[in-house]
């Protein structure tokens, strides 16, 4: 992190008190964490994952994951929303570093110099794709609704895609950046959710946006894994799930602090022991995800490894928070304690791909030596 002068993890630690000040109010009001994003931008974390050679901080997946895990100790919603920008930087940085893909340089340089915020429409644009792309002179006319677009109020460019009907019964997906200030792009405020209420994960509506052929990043068959998506799965999910690990750690800290005020019994020691054991399992599984991403390759095998880790982190993080709530007892049931917010926020770990069913099918097919190119 030479260009920033300070490690992103140290920066994240320094921001925790400020993030905690607003966490409760933004949650209760379903308000986007706009002030926190301004804080992250001012602290230099927006460009942390851009290679040093391109003007950024040069942080790798391990450092970025630790940064996000740390931010989650301050505000879960801020960390999760920021993980979507962070992985949209980390993926092209990985391609630049490991595959020498020069086409990603302009985007990465913009992130470093202008500190633009990248949005992910991953929830809408997983392997199957969504939206429509109509062929017109010089490009395509895009119409789509992209749900779960975290940090949409702060975004500058939405990294997205749309489906093309090839006319022979098949579909393809084109991928491109969507300027959020375009007249054809609007945000529909739909985000009223169980947890992660401050992420601003509203619907982005694209109504007739023209996308020129020259700015299409790549084209792929719809409904089938593509090498770029193997990179996305390998690199992005250790970052996203670092947030849920941080939520579980925060719940542990709160529960221990509450329980320490009371007389200890065999029951509380049992709960505390089960809680920290579950947390250790989540930490080990997440470490496995990070180590897989650090290998520098992306394939069906790395997707399988990362997604097995994703399920283990989700299960054990959720279990940790449940045990933390039980250990804290009735005191933890009060909203002011912060544990019930951790309980709600960690539930989001259930919903990112690959969810439990597809992940098990993918792992099972790999174990049996069967194709996985349409398992998602």
TrEMBL record:
Segments crossing the lipid bilayer: 228-247
Annotated ranges, domain Acyl-CoA dehydrogenase C-terminal: 241-352
Domain of life of the organism encoding this protein: Bacteria
Domain Acyl-CoA dehydrogenase/oxidase N-terminal per the UniProt entry, residue ranges: 18-94
Keyword presence, Transmembrane: yes
InterPro entries per the UniProt record, alphabetical: Acyl-CoA_DH_C, Acyl-CoA_Oxase/DH_mid-dom_sf, AcylCo_DH-like_C, AcylCoA_DH/ox_N, AcylCoA_DH/ox_N_sf, AcylCoA_DH/oxidase_NM_dom_sf
Keywords linked to the UniProt accession: Membrane, Oxidoreductase, Transmembrane, Transmembrane helix
Membrane as UniProt keyword: yes
Pfam families with a match to the protein in the record: Acyl-CoA_dh_2 (PF08028), Acyl-CoA_dh_N (PF02771)
Gene3D superfamilies on file: Acyl-CoA dehydrogenase/oxidase, N-terminal domain, Butyryl-CoA Dehydrogenase, subunit A, domain 2, Butyryl-CoA Dehydrogenase, subunit A, domain 3
GO molecular function: acyl-CoA dehydrogenase activity; flavin adenine dinucleotide binding
PANTHER family tied to this protein: ACYL-COA DEHYDROGENASE, ACYL-COA DEHYDROGENASE YDBM-RELATED
Stated name of the protein: Acyl-CoA dehydrogenase
Species in which this protein is naturally found: Georhizobium profundi
């Amino acid at each position: 992190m030479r260009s920033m002068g300070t490690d992103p993890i140290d920066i994240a630690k320094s921001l925790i008190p400020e993030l905690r000040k607003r966490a409760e109010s933004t949650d209760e009001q379903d308000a986007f964490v706009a002030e926190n994003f301004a804080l992250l931008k001012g602290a230099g974390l927006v460009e942390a994952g851009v290679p040093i050679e391109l003007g950024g901080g040069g942080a790798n997946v391990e450092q970025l994951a630790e940064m996000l895990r740390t931010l989650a100790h301050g505000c879960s919603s801020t960390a999760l929303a920021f993980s979507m920008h962070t992985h949209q930087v980390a993926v092209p940085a990985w391609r630049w570093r490991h595959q020498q893909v020069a086409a990603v340089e302009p985007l990465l340089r913009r992130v470093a110099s202008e500190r633009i915020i990248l949005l992910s429409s991953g929830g809408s644009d997983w392997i199957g794709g969504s939206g429509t792309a109509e062929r017109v002179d010089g490009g395509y006319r895009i119409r789509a609704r992209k749900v779960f677009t975290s940090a949409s109020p702060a975004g500058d460019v939405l990294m997205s895609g749309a489906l093309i009907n090839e006319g022979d019964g098949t579909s393809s997906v084109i991928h491109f950046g969507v300027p959020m200030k375009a007249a054809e792009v609007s945000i529909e405020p739909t985000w009223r959710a169980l947890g992660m209420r401050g992420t601003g994960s509203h619907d982005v509506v694209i109504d007739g946006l023209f996308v020129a052929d020259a700015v299409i990043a790549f084209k792929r068959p719809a409904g089938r894994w593509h090498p770029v998506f193997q990179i996305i799965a390998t690199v992005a999910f250790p970052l996203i799930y670092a947030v849920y690990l941080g939520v579980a750690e925060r719940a542990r800290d709160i529960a221990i602090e509450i329980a320490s005020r009371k007389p200890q019994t065999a029951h509380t020691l049992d709960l505390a022991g089960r809680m920290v054991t579950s947390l250790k399992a989540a930490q080990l599984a997440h470490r496995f995800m990070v180590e897989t991403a650090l290998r520098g390759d992306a394939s069906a095998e790395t997707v399988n490894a990362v997604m097995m880790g994703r399920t283990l982190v989700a299960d054990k993080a959720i279990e940790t928070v449940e045990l933390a709530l039980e250990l804290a007892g009735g005191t933890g049931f009060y909203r002011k304690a912060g544990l019930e917010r951790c309980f709600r926020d960690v539930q989001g770990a259930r919903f990112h791909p690959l969810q439990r069913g597809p992940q098990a099918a993918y792992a099972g097919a790999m174990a049996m030596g069967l194709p996985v190119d349409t398992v998602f």
